[in-house]
Amino acid sequence: MIKQATYIKSVTDLKDEPEGFPQILLIGRSNVGKSSFINALTNRKNLARVSNTPGKTITLNFYLIDQSFYLVDAPGYGYARRSKSMQDQFILMIQKYIKQAEHLKLICILVDFKVGPTDDDLFTYQFLVEQNLNVMVVATKKDKVPKTHQFKQEQFIKKVMKNPIIFYAYSNVTKENLDKIENEMRNQVTVIE
Question: Which residue segments constitute the domains of the chain, with CATH numbers given?
Answer without folding.
Answer: 5-189 (3.40.50.300)
